Amino acid sequence: MRKADTESGVNGVVEGPPARSGTVQSVERAVDLLEAMAEAGGTVSLSHLAATSGLPLPTIHRLVRTLAGRGYVRQQSSREYALGPRLVQLGDTAGRLVGLWVRPKLAELVEELGESANMALLEGTQVVYVAQAPGRHSMRMFTEVGRRVSAHCTAVGKALLALAEPERVSEILRNTDMVAHTENTFTDEASFRAELDRVRAAGYAIDEGEQELGVRCVAVALDGTIPAAISISGPTTRMTDDLIASAVPRLHAAAASLVDELARRDTEPA
After folding, report:
1. Would 191 be classed as within a structural domain?
2. What residues pair up with 234 in beta bridges, in sequence order?
3. Does residue 79 share a domain with residue 194?
4. One digit per residue, pLDDT tens: the chain, 270 residues?
5. Which domain holds residue 170?
6. What is 73-121 written as a DSSP string?
7. Alpha-carbon distance 93 to 65, whole Å?
8. What Gene3D superfamilies has UniProt attached to this entry (predicted)?
């Protein structure tokens, strides 16, 4: 969320910046508040929103009350506000739409590599799988589209966090219980941050049975406008070092192609 360059309004009341040309100021402010809540882990106080947005409390209160009335925000018993269930519905719908255009590219990866291919998005403190192309083998990995998991125990999660802003990573880790799903799961922040350093240096992330024993996964993040990553996964017996070495450049090529496709779609006339 951007911090407003405040300006004085009528009677010296601080009302924040004017809307950009062709936009609606109240909508911009409401979206800014939702993004601020997401960046703070999903639950915030009105005073926190005031401090980060530069808007006066009465304005924030009106916007939050409107969002709550539509289900996009809900009030907690602690007098804090949390992101509401309506956002989950919108996110799921958007995720399915993303899956429609990414699935052909995932199918190409399966054709080249044989193993299941996935795409996941970073939403809040978790990753959500939005598309999959099943592998060619009778024994293959299957990840349900719509499944949400913690970022610390998946290759897609590590790839995404390795590219995220440091403040975003810190916020996610503060709001994540680093539960041990297997003996290989990273469960402390220091070792996990060291792993993210390795991912940045290598340009890809590997899940070494950190979510499920006997499963290996390799992922790369899309270097674009959406926090997304693609991966292939399979049994450890087939996901050899040689296969991973072959998969990494193919994943990078697929990711670059998806970024180009998304940019093209964004510039097409409505």
Report:
1. yes
2. 216
3. no
4. 443 433 333 333 344 545 555 678 888 888 888 888 877 777 888 888 888 888 888 999 899 989 988 888 988 877 788 888 888 777 767 666 666 778 899 999 999 999 999 999 988 888 989 899 989 877 666 677 778 899 999 999 999 999 999 988 998 998 888 999 999 999 999 999 999 999 999 999 999 999 999 999 999 999 877 889 999 999 999 999 999 999 999 999 999 999 888 777 666 655
5. 87-267
6. EEE-TTS-EEE-HHHHHHHHHHHHHHHHHHHHHHHHHHHHH-SEEEEEE
7. 24
8. 3.30.450.40, Winged helix-like DNA-binding domain superfamily/Winged helix DNA-binding domain
At residue 192, what are phi and psi to the nearest 5 degrees?
-70, -40
Q: Would you mind telling me the total number of residues written for the chain in this entry? A: 270
Report the C-alpha gap between 156 and 164 in whole angstroms.
Answer: 12
Kindly give, in sequence order, each residue whose CB lies less than 8 Å from that of residue 270, ignoring residues fewer than 6 positions away.
Answer: none
117 near 96, Cβ under 8 Å? Answer: no
Query: Do the domain assignments include residue 117?
Result: yes
In a domain, 4, yes or no: no
Look up the CATH number of the domain holding residue 27.
1.10.10.10
Residues 6+ apart with CB under 8 A from 91: 123, 128
